[in-house]
Amino acid sequence: MSVYGGIEAGGSKWECAIGTGPDGLHATATIPTTTHEETIGRTVAFFEQEGPVDAIGIGCFGPIDRRLASPTWGHITTTPKPGGAHTDVGQEIRRRLSVPVAFDTDVNAAALGEHLWGAARGLDTFCYITVGTGIGGGGMARGRLLHGRVHPEFGHMRIPHDREVDPFPGVCPYHGDCWEGLASGGAIEARWGRPAIELGGSEAVWELQAHYIALGVVCVICVLSPERILLGGGVMSQPKLLPLVHREVHGLMNGYIETAPVGEGIAGYVTSPALGSRSGVLGAIALAGTA
Amino acid sequence: MSVYGGIEAGGSKWECAIGTGPDGLHATATIPTTTHEETIGRTVAFFEQEGPVDAIGIGCFGPIDRRLASPTWGHITTTPKPGGAHTDVGQEIRRRLSVPVAFDTDVNAAALGEHLWGAARGLDTFCYITVGTGIGGGGMARGRLLHGRVHPEFGHMRIPHDREVDPFPGVCPYHGDCWEGLASGGAIEARWGRPAIELGGSEAVWELQAHYIALGVVCVICVLSPERILLGGGVMSQPKLLPLVHREVHGLMNGYIETAPVGEGIAGYVTSPALGSRSGVLGAIALAGTA
User: Fold this and answer.
1) E-assigned strand segments in B91-220
2) Is the ipTM of this complex over 0.90?
3) Which of A1, A194, B171, B273 could form a disulfide with B232 if both were Cys (CB 3.0 to 4.6 A apart)?
4) What's the predicted TM-score (pTM) here?
């Protein structure tokens, strides 16, 4: 059986693992994202020390270039994350470790992991959305990971924003009050002056947050008609949030599209990833199998 | 070669055709949508008189039930269109004409037609959006028509709505100011008191209209990352509209996702269907080949 390496490359940390799946991880490491050279250097060192592996899958924050024929395949392109734009990840990992590399978004990797081993088993059209420092989304349509011109960038949809209720202008450097600009962990911290994890007691925070998350979820339902939507990421670890999102999605759909379980079945329809915070790195291992 | 029948079942008329494709139509008919019995009766009579056909494809306004195992396969479910909800189309056509029937949304049928014979040839991930009486969207992801839990319902996304600029509350009976509620032909007529076709001279009408259309297009770009977006439907026949939509999409994307042609390439990226108003009925003929 092949042994794969997985890298979930994020804006605050890189999760690395070696193994075959959720029940067969030989080694793991969490590497804080610092300078590009240092982060990639420590990642290479981990695989040199704990490997060898037959291939590596990288699930990377985006936007990324995953066109195999492109000279900038494996690069991060125009990210709002400071210092992250126009950097090579995939080519350098491939060169320095001399193994085949599969490169996709962090959220498509997570979706693949959930499809193989988690909450999307048996489904062929579904989404994985992460609400963390930023907001990203990926998934499958009819059994294939979502790729098109580029790849999905759910976080940059525009959603309704009532500035009388919430005068906060949003944090996205490209769009201001896009979905990520209003509803990411970064937006929560900027709006309320404290990170989400310290705001557990405030109803107003989570009511507004659930409303914004639901607005984006409704757009995804209308565009893709997924069979299930998995909501992961650090912000979703607040336990009161998901039930509020259910109520808001139900209210916003208002009975439209009867065959979607927007009534009592919604708790199984908009739900949590089964692999928890390991969706991304396990998905990267799954991705390695496609390299 | 098989001869197919195609039906584009709409809220104001049913377009029927018999043939093999754009260059081989033997007979066509336009039947105004009146009562369900009358409309379907005239449709059946057309095929009885002009047929026989080997199979029929139906592209129908939605939401529809297209799950083959469902007892209500072939039905329209919860449509905002008056008198259209909970009616059987596919089963009755199949029974009365004794031919295999393929049943999908009008917009997925149109997408299939454009994929075979029109502006989406050679693409495997693209969207077809109609802005007419209502707004609908369909398309393909990686070579397969978009189906999931149900089917896409682009028109019911929520988009930003600045009520100071546009106090109009929207016309969607389910959602008020969803995309269809703000930007459909029905919305234009209700907001301005005259149908779109009589408003050609007013810059304000088309500036606002382009802004709303672009907001929905941006959501579709962010969710699906299509290689091309085809904008059809009666409202798009206003010639000044598409260039304004290009400008708005370009502004809203603001340089994000570099590899999407949101700069000078946008005129080929967000463009018109090549089959014009025949996308739907030709697509229905294409759909018949899958029955």
Assistant:
1) 101-105, 126-131, 135-141, 144-145
2) yes
3) B273
4) 0.94
